[in-house]
Specification:
- The protein has 159 residues and is mostly helical.
- It folds into two domains: 88 residues, RNA polymerase sigma factor, region 2, helix turn helix motif (Rna Polymerase Sigma Factor, Chain: A), CATH 1.10.1740.10; 52 residues, Arc Repressor Mutant, subunit A (Orthogonal Bundle).
- Helices cover 76% and strands 0% of the residues.
- The protein is globular.
- The protein starts with a helix and ends with a helix.
């Protein structure tokens, strides 16, 4: 079983390659899902996922276990996703009405319901990963459930 302690033993023994070999299959899909929730582009999410594991490999010796390994990985993934998102934005002015309308239509946060339900993370862990208050995570989850319920209701009445 993969534990933070077993990974730290490998890092301390200067066996970083073995540690990343264990982390990659355990977190690859989760990191990709988080990146995709930000970027909404498969290729860009794959690039970010690869970048995240390179960053993890480089940073493993400095991991100090103040947070769990998964929270640390998700934080790196979130930051890399945000950087990729910023890098692909064209330089536009908010004084342009079309740009302002597009900005207002964007939901800047990935959907926490994906992380809570797919990854079985607590509200607190999701809040840490997404750098948002726990109350915001709970509100967004409530809204997502309401939209899902409404969509399910429309589906049942149309059939």
């Amino acid at each position: 079983m993969l534990t933070d302690a077993s990974l730290m033993e490998l890092v301390r023994a200067e066996r970083r390659d073995e540690a990343i070999a264990l982390l990659l299959p355990a977190f690859r899909r989760k990191v990709f899902a988080l990146a995709y929730s930000f970027l909404r582009d498969r290729e860009a999410a794959e690039d970010v996922t690869q970048e995240v594991f390179i960053k993890i490999w480089r940073a493993l010796p400095g991991f100090d276990a103040r947070a769990s390994m998964s929270t640390w990985i998700y934080t790196i993934a979130r930051n890399a996703s945000l950087s990729a998102l910023r890098a692909r934005r064209p330089q536009s002015s908010l004084s342009d009405p079309e740009v302002m309308a597009a900005v207002e239509a964007i939901d800047p946060a990935p959907s926490p319901d994906v992380i809570v339900y797919m990854e079985a993370q607590s509200h607190e862990e999701v809040a840490t990963m997404l750098a948002m208050p726990v109350g915001t995570v709970k509100t967004l989850l409530h809204r997502a459930r309401a939209r899902l319920s409404a969509a399910a209701g429309k589906m049942s009445t149309s059939s």
